[in-house]
Amino acid sequence: MIPELYRDLLTSTALAHVATLGPNGEPQTNPVWFDWDGAHILFSQTTKRQKYRNLQRDGRIALSIVDPANPYRYLEIRGAVERIDPDPDLTFINKMAQKYLGQERYPYHQPGDERVVVIVKPMHTTQMG
Amino acid sequence: MIPELYRDLLTSTALAHVATLGPNGEPQTNPVWFDWDGAHILFSQTTKRQKYRNLQRDGRIALSIVDPANPYRYLEIRGAVERIDPDPDLTFINKMAQKYLGQERYPYHQPGDERVVVIVKPMHTTQMG
After folding, report:
1. Is the CB of B17 less than 8 angstroms away from the CB of A29?
2. ipTM (interface predicted TM)
3. Contact at CB, B27 and A15, closer than 8 angstroms
4. Domain spanning B4-128: which CATH class is it, in words?
5. Which pLDDT tens digits describe chain B residue by residue (129 residues)?
6. In sequence order, which residues have a C-beta less than 8 Å from that of residue B110 and are 6 or more positions away?
């Protein structure tokens, strides 16, 4: 599914800019930390966030990832949310803290934040560079 | 419209990740060079690109801009296309080449490419960091 020449971006520490659909079908976007399990893009979310509500309403999603070493090289992944899993022990967000911060635990967890893992199935890509 | 604390991002050489709506209302996203005229976000586009067709169909748009010096600081701008202007002399794309490449002329222009300037009116922002 992902062109071989761009797979390195999936294990890089680049951010993914996630586009979702707001309540009126309008685009919304912001950067996230992400993981790649070999077949899906995964990212963490709290259930209070607009993006979580958007994806529960309409699971269509697009992510754009720029090579940190080359701003003219990027991969866009379009797809759909396959599943949203709970993350009650913060296993996934701590894994992301390890990847992006080199820290064992995610330092910004707030008591009361309910964390989930959004699991995205890629269906189409565009790329450049 | 834009929170003062984030206005520096509008004159930075960060990329803007632009989210538009595809033919079936699905989100699409990719990075662009952008300019800020004090009231609008502007970016270049060729008329052959999917993003151009998307914006002609539905002008709703969102852009996310991360601080190049601090990946935990970002600004999202949601808005709508106010106008799409022709760029027959490549004035605008050359200005972007100056901003991003330090070159007087955009080096990737292809004969036959029809360039336009997409002018976006911000209507709402979200931010972090």
Report:
1. yes
2. 0.94
3. no
4. mainly beta
5. 899 999 999 999 999 999 999 999 999 999 999 999 999 999 999 999 999 999 999 999 999 999 999 988 999 999 999 999 999 999 999 999 999 999 999 999 999 999 999 999 999 999 999
6. none
Rounded-to-integer distance, Cα B38 and Cα A91, Å? 44
Radius of gyration for the alpha carbons in chain A, expressed in angstroms and rounded: 14
Query: Within the 26-55 window of chain B, which residues sit less than 8 Å (CB to CB) from chain A?
Result: 26-31, 50
Q: From the candidates B26, B103, B118, B120, which should be mutated to test the interface with A, based on the most A CB atoms within 10 A?
A: B26
What does the angle CA B79 – CA B83 – CA B84 come to, to the nearest 5 degrees? Answer: 115
CB proximity B66 to A under 8 Å: yes
- Chain A residues with CB-CB distance to B22 below 8 A: 78
CA B102 to each of CA A17, A61, A63, B33, B78: distance values in angstroms, whole numbers, following the listed order: 26, 34, 29, 13, 29
Chain segment A89-108, per-residue pLDDT in tens = 999 999 999 999 999 999 99
Instruction: For residue B34, give both structure tokens.
Output: 């952008």
Domain ranges of chain A: 4-128
Using the Cβ of B71 and the Cβ atoms of chain A, whether some distance falls under 8 Å is answered with yes
- Rounded Cα gap, residues B96 and B105, in angstroms: 9
Task: Classify residue A49 as left (phi > 0), alpha (psi -120 to 50) or beta.
Answer: beta
The answer to whether A25 contacts B25, with C-beta atoms less than 8 Å apart, is yes
Residues A45/A31, Cβ–Cβ less than 8 Å: no
State the amino acid at position B69 in one-letter form: A
Contact A17 B25 (CB under 8 A): no
